[in-house]
Amino acid sequence: MQIYLPIAEVSVNFLLILGLGGMVGVLSGMFGVGGGFLLTPLLFFIGIPPAVAVATGANQIVASSISAVLAHFKRRAVDLKMGGVLLAGGLVGASLGVALFNFLKKLGQVDLLVSLFYVVFLGVIGGLMMIESIRALRRSKSGVRPKRKKHNWIHGLPLKVRFRTSGLYISVIPPLMVGFLVGVLAAIMGVGGGFIMVPAMIYLLGMPTKVVVGTSLFQIIFVAAFTTMLHAATNYTVDILLAVLLLVGGVIGAQFGAGLGARLKAEQLRVLLAGLVLLVCAKLALELLLEPAEVFSIAGM
Amino acid sequence: MRAVCLALLWLLFALPLGAEEVVLGLSQDQVSISTDFDGSEILIFGAIKRESPIPEGAPLEVVITLAGPLQPLTVWRKERRFGIWVNTQAVEVDAAPSFYAVATSGPWNDVITQVEDLRHHVSIERAIRSVGAPMQVQDSQAFSAAVVRIRENQDKYQMLEGAVEMSESTLFNTSVTMPANLVEGRYPMRIFLTRDGSVVSSFETKIDVRKVGLERWLYELSRGNPLAYGLLSLAIAIGAGWIASTAFRLLRER
User: Fold this and answer.
1) Which residues of A touch B37 (CB under 8 A)?
2) Does A37 score more than 80 pLDDT?
3) Distance from CA of A153 to the nearest CA of B (A)
4) What is the CATH architecture of B16-211?
């Protein structure tokens, strides 16, 4: 069944969009990523104009993240205090990122830059996470408990605050910095930033994985809502009809994902997320490296 | 009434001897884009009105064009730089129709000469207007050819050679299929009558392509009140997320 989208001005298959939303929703609930890094390229692929795909994707992420975060709230797996600190850094970073994005747009080549950012960040994060989690998986099989409380330079910083839910007593400076950096990247790459946030919380801040997912989702809701409003107000590129179809699939998928994630072990969850991130990275890298079938492309003005 | 009749009669007689004019009928002069819009087929049928017998010589041919609104475009070409494929050169096209179909009653080279094509912008290539490429681009034709190629693959540009059926040099009919990915606007339709490749008469009308119902309302809200539109999309997102999570919790608790 075909349905015409009023803002995108294309006709799409109704079931395809529902399925797409559902799939991204499952991942969102499972890993605490918004799914923007997957959804946006997939929407390009089925012929949605890029500007509409980015803006509408942000709106869909709000829905699936809320659906999932409520499931995590029930399990007390959201560190509100940490989420707030990350968000504060994130909003500042996002504003700076948008300014940087517009500057690069003037120079041209912004598409290339976004692709390169994706390949580099997805590759590095996916690779590191894969190595670490496979190592952790082996360790847990051999039965040796890893030392959880590691003391590194982060613990020497001032302005220490107790984050009860995460069981941490650290300075607010690292989470602010992480939030800020993720905000900048998120604005440039047009995503919520969950796939950067999740590993940063695990490896840089040392938060327990179970809390990380809920907290990341909590933070993503606000960043994605901010992005949606910005796009709707300045570019008129949010397509409500497309968003509704995506989010009907998305919110249901997110519920299943959150349930599925709770049943898996933290290390297994990380291996799966790392695999997914590397897969998207490889696809984007191939696009840059292989000769395209059509070297010309049409862009509106 | 009488005055109108007289005027019409005068018009008829004012037709120069040997002139040929188009009388046109369309299956629809309005295309409504509703939520389940899946493309549209327009039937075009017409007759040629004459005051004198069919002139001797080459047969009369018909060329019909239907065009979407004009839009400016940027066409990019990728090249390999440092091992990766990068957009290197761009040519700006001042005005390209979002949709363009040409239907003819015979082979292209027989129905219209190059000079007439140039004058009336009939062929797909001539319908695209480009002022000029930047200095460093040598082969700007390749860029406009790319626009035609890409859009022909999307059915946005259609060259329908020989698709117009002509009988007795008087009646003609054809159909144009408009794809689902249509842009709103007034679509000018032109009909040229040609003999020996030169245009002897032309006729123009318009097909109105409009979003209707929900499509119209959403589109207008997004342009007229973007803040409300953004808040509405967020409200839907938040509401849907909450409903799904509550519904699933209730299901599990049962």
Assistant:
1) 2, 4, 11
2) no
3) 39
4) Sandwich (2.60)
If one compares A8 and B134, the residue with the highest pLDDT of the two is: A8
Domain positions in chain B are: 16-211, 212-254
Torsion from C-alpha of A83, A85, A88, A90, nearest 10 degrees? -60
Q: What is the pLDDT of residues A225-281, one digit of tens each?
A: 887 887 777 777 788 888 888 888 887 887 888 788 778 777 777 788 888 888 888
On whether residue A38 sits in a domain, the answer given is yes
Number of Cβ pairs closer than 8 Å across A and B?
A: 193
| A238 contact B CB<8A | yes
Residues of the domain holding A205: 2-289
pLDDT greater at residue B133 or residue B157:
B157
DSSP conformation letters of A96-164? HHHHHHHHHHHHS-HHHHHHHHHHHHHHHHHHHHHHHHHHHHHHHHHTPPPP-----GGGG-SSEEEET
Cβ–Cβ under 8 Å, residues B33 and B218 = no
pTM above 0.95, yes or no: no
A300 in a structural domain: no
Residues 173-202 of A with CB under 8 A from B: none
Is the reported ipTM for this assembly greater than 0.95? no
Interface probe, candidates A67, A74, A118, chain B, greatest B C-beta count within 10 A: A67
pLDDT band, residue A158 (cuts 50/70/90): low
